[in-house]
Amino acid sequence: MTPKTSYDIPFTIIGGVSTGPLENGPMGKHTLSGFTNALTIFEFIPDPLLPGGETDFISSDKFVWDLGDGTVAYSTSARHVYKYPGVYTVSLMGYTSAGEPTLSTKVSSLSVSDFLPTSLQLNTKDVVNTLNVPAGVRGAQNTPIKIIRHTSWQPHRALSAVGYTLTLYASGSKSRRLNVNRYENDKWNHIDQTWSFYNGVTGNNPDIIDFVPAEKVTTTSEDIYYLKEIKQDRQTWVKTTSAIFNTVSGVSAIFVGTSGVADFYYGDDIPKLTDTPVLLFATLDTQQFPGQHQTFNNNYNPAQPYSLLKFFEQKPLVIPTRVKYNPGRELKFTPFGINSVPLTGHKWQNTQIPFFINFQDRYSGFTENYSPLKLNVLNPAESAPSVDRVDTHYVTNIALVSTAGDGTITNYLSAQFSRDTNTAYLPLHLSGSFRGSFVPTEIGDTGTMLVGDTIVNDPAHFPKDINFGYISVIEDKKIKRIAFGDNFYVSDTTGEVLRSRDSRTSKVGFVGDTDHVFGNANYNGTVISIATVPENNLINDNRTRTYIGHSLNDSVTALNTYGDIISGIHLQSGLGTYHEPSSGVLMSEQIFDRAKGSGSRHSPTSISVDSDGNYWLALSASSMVMKIDGQSGNIKQIINEAGPGDANKTYTTTVTAAKGVYITESSSGIYNLYEPSIVETDKSDNVWVAYTNPLSSFIKKYDSQGTLLATINYASEGNQGIVPTAMVVDSFNNLWVTTTNKMRNTMTSMNTRWHNFSLMDSICAVPNPPGYNEIHVAFKGTSLSAVSNHIVELSGFGAPVAGLRDTAKYPTRLYNGRYLAHGVSTGANTNGAWLNTLTLKPQTSRILALTFASLCAQNINPHVRFQASDAVFKYSHDGTKLYEVSGFFKPEYITLDNDQNAWIGHNINTVTKITTGGVINYDSYITSSDNNKLRIESDNTFYTNNSGALIHTVSGERSQLGGLSFDTYNNLLAINSYENKLFRVPVGNIPLSGNSLLYYPATYGNVPRYHGVTKSPSTSSTTGHIYGITRTNGDWTGYGWLNKYHNGLSASRMVAGSASLLFFPPEVNIKLQK
After folding, report:
1. How far is the C-alpha of 399 from the C-alpha of 384, rounded, in Å?
2. pTM
3. Which of 138, 314, 697, 1018 is deepest in the core (most CB within 10 A)?
4. What gap in Å lies between CA 236 and CA 655, rounded to an integer?
5. How far apart are alpha carbons 361 and 338 in whole angstroms?
6. 793-815: buried (b, 16+ CB within 10 Å) or exposed (e) per residue?
């Protein structure tokens, strides 16, 4: 019967989840959310009808409840447990005293979810969800995958007999998928380059002895029960076990679902060296789930016919996986290309013997990272075997030899080697392998061996990645941690796999900071030195330890991956003990007595960590270098370098100025003649120390015990000038050093006539943008050949200048400054007056706009001075100079890419690449007019002040870069200090715009700040200078340490192997046959 009327028939729902104290009995009241089990039994009760009310004619003993999931209850009240998650609309129909149905206008919506939501989770203690696996199958035994499954109770009856199964798949691999169904029937499947999931087979001990490919794995299963209890007038649910059924409380236990784990492995033969991982998918198999038709037959809701579909949608778990390069360690000879079947045992002379050559890795498996192999036979019948050698990549020098008892080769034996050309089952050439046969025509009287060696090259590769970085934020006086990693997840709405970048930041403090601030109101003069290293060498443990030195606090703070302080020392009072050979054990105050500097602080300005986790400190104020045990905090070594005669001197600004040296105040505000400011460990755990006072600058190398090994002299008192600004050791143990010339010897000065015009293409390859100009300086009758690659200083420009189109709008004083000479042209112009023209490029950027749209003026006489440019040096491990590269201006940052090319941050906002051969690189992939330089900016627009005028204001020649580093996929990480942004730039294909933005603190907005002004330039005055907010110093990502100690890059490396054989002559074979 269809209701003809509707009235507000109030009703109450109890039994759901209560979030607060229970007010009306143990079941609570008006709770509109619950679970799909008896932990929440909903009760639906009509409210009492008030006499004389508008509904007092409604019968109180006849109701019909529609519970929203297809269940209809014909009763005064109803109790119900919902079986499936969803949102259910509950409605009520009553009857009048005359028996006419009437529908209540009140409806209620209930939100019901599984108490134990169905989920899959990767079981890992790592700080990132990315899995690292070495290429190949055997290496997978060190990287097991464990998935934890939770499943709600609904499908348990159908699955309790067959178990819970996970379906596995991979996407993005460079290998082919292994055909599991043909695995047992294809005898050559081990030769193909494939990927697959595997179950491990163990022997009598837990060690894996074999792998069996699988497309599905079955999890364990444990039933989960909960009890509902009331504690302190609040609902609580207590987990219990099946043992409770043996007690009285067992009747109240509710089965909520099951949990289980699955262990398996992923093997992939081809490494993937890009930053896009292979994605592994694990999905709960729903084939045995209750059919939808069964569910709908029992719970059909015509208004929502598909409301239960979500129960059958199983969201897969996505595991980003890095397939790491796996280098070969030795050559292995086998008869079939199977490592467990060696080429040994009895062989017969003059009989064809098939063999494979493969590269065996550290896991005793075969790696196929390499090109196919060729053979070069060392045959004694031709000439001396040493003459026959071919040391060419992937050509195997092979021979059959006799050996002495100690393995020394005593004789080369004759044998005929050939390649197997039968391609019916296998291709002719196999990656990292050779397939052929040999016939031994001569056998020795002693031990006989098959020996071979070849030359390989390994690309840059790393066992793990960098995931975090630390940056000092000047405005906040904080250190912020940046997470570089990408997150992969499945969209709840579309089912697509999405990729997001984690830009979370966290503030960390320092030892001795009560409020976790820098400890000084003025950041200028404070040096925050940073060194980040892996916590250990485990391939799937990406935890890090970061040391942060504070020059004014005189402290070193150690942070864990989460930014928590795990240890810290005050250098004056909190140092551990030091055992000095001549004086015994020294305490902190006694250690300070060994200082040879001036002042009351040590002032750590640089930190470098060796391969054992010990860290070296450069203490510029106390003129000491200190090595500290990273675990105990005790001092392991102190180096006091006071120069010849142990005669350290201190200087004031007046003294240095009197010597005519262009020098700025040191980072700690103290002038020591011998001032160690930079430290850098090498691959052998020696340490390079740069002493950076312009009056006496040099670099020394010490071993771990403080013994001097090498010296690089730049200046001594009376011969001042070149000062190291940054150092880094590459993976081949070479030392790169950036230097700046603080003396700037003047070459010549001349008065010039000059003109300027706009570029057709700017430094950012944007046609004729306002604010990006060249300066052309023309000289009459003067040769400029000697000044190319020098610094040109212009001065004497004033404002206004007669002859300009708009003297108020275009003040030529903006041309005053120092510039790198960009180009020199010779020859006369149309009137024959100009013989040489020098092209300069101002350091323009979004906050350095030259506001000339077009400008040309003559008959003015600014002053021009030429100065030597700064240089970058490359030294061998013993300090021998390999290259000196000039053409830089105030280089401040240096980092190395994966291939050990150097990238230099200099000239305010320029990044320049130097190849390993010491050449400034002009690769065609940078298509700007300055195609060896890169600008790190988000776009080409200029910031303006509140009047709409373009900004050209900086503090002297302060760098706009805040730091450089790389990641393990050859992406340049560059901090734009003024925009407060971190960019990731793929150096293999540098884009001119749209660089990947990693970090963008919204609290700072999309504009730089002025010193002491928090408003943006568009709304605030341009009074004062703009200072960069985000800056860093040292190995702030840990890439430098990882590149130095664990980059497997190798241009040429020999790999060798052998197999012991026992040969019988043919007559022995004939007798055996008889």
Report:
1. 12
2. 0.85
3. 697
4. 77
5. 13
6. bbeebeeebeebeeeeebbbebb
